[in-house]
Write the structure tokens for this entry.
Amino acid sequence: MDMPKAFSRRAARALTSALLATATLTALSHSAAAAGTLGSAAAGKGRYFGTAVAASHLGESAYAGTLDREFSAVTPENEMKWDATESTRNTFTFAAADQIVSHAQSKGMKIRGHTLVWHSQLPSWVSGLGAADLRTAMNNHITQLMQHYKGKIYAWDVVNEAFQDGSSGARRSSPFQDKLGDGYIEEAFRTARSVDPDAKLCYNDYNTDGVNAKSNAVYNMVKDFKSRGVPIDCVGFQSHFNSASPVPSDYRANLQRFADLGVDVQITELDIEGSGTAQANSYATVVKACLAVSRCTGMTVWGITDKYSWRSSGTPLLFDSNYAEKPAYDAVLTALGGSGSGGGGGNGGGTGATCTVVFTKTADWNDGYNGQVTVTAGAAPITGWTTTVTFPAPQKVSTLWNGSASWDSSGTVMTVRPTYNADLAAGASTSFGFTVQKNGSSSAPTVGTCTAS
Ligand code: G3I
């Protein structure tokens, strides 16, 4: 085996994102991942980088692998909403949301609770209630959800989208607004604080990203809350952009004016329809705006892959439908100060050359184990491949076969290249293996991306 030597994080980051992980592949930690990931680069700036997650996709290895590699925070996309958690009055269903929460917790990710009081995805029984009953139901819903997740959620979107679009600056009509009046928002925040004093309480909305009538109305509400001691800690800016609704030129200034009220601000549902350089530039503008506002504590994109975006046809996310990094990904990483490739996404190999890697533990004993990584060529033949395996300290690899290794300076990241087994036909596989001394740690290692030539 080669002696440890410097490992090119930049090269690793630029590889194809066709990562496959197995259920046994549980040990990824953000601190151990290459510096060139969204989460680690954002952490370098004191921020988190999150994504909306759907529980139904967590079983897809490329989905979970990309999530675990790149992101340091999650927001359940639908699973904590009222229709998902209390479709029948006072019968609470937490299974799908719990799945996301436990996945995120096992990876050390932050979790944003989304959302407690919203006019949409609201069961019809709620809309049918009279005022007194509705107040009770709203406070009970807030209480039950926040108690269930107490200590696990860093911030809740307590109230979502309570204002109208357009120039009126008025509150949106909803069962809550129409029956309880303006005071329901304040009541929701007060109830939320009483249930979990440690969670950050946020107001979240869209079309409030620049200075306009709607954001002015939200601004005035937050200012009023702060002046009267109504508990509010943060404001979320959804930031759903497209050509008809581009990133506003006063985006940063708008974030700053809210921050100046004494609340944290976050970008909560970022997606930008488009492609190529234009999309990449818009993403960079958003990231730079957040970094320029000291109270902008983190950014969340509204999904991992274009394939599962709520507006998939607009290809608004950072990873394409095959989980390859798009130019927008590079732009975000570069804006975060990470080790961007400076170019677009791609395979990192010859045209069409891709590969995937899967780890399995093939033997396990008291103080050691054997691991195997299977490398599979994509739809085209390949003439070379490279992947990484990150071992939790203080594990040490004592033997490696069917591969040649180099090591990073920390001695935890092993980069493996072929020996005799570089050439693979389309879809064909080879594998390399290793023996590991546990030295007290039984955790599984983490495989990185595979790059092919
Ligand atoms: O799960 C059912 C499935 O069983 C059924 O067969 C299918 C048929 O339509 O519907 C599925 O539910 C869909 C759900 O997403 C899960 O995929 C709903 O119809 C669909 O309406 C729902 O859309 C969600 C939307 O909120 C609802 O308003 C999107 O996924 C979600 O991304 C989106 O998220 C919102 C934020 O919460 C608030 N801000 C705006 C943002 C985008 O609209």
Summary: The longest strand covers residues 355-365.
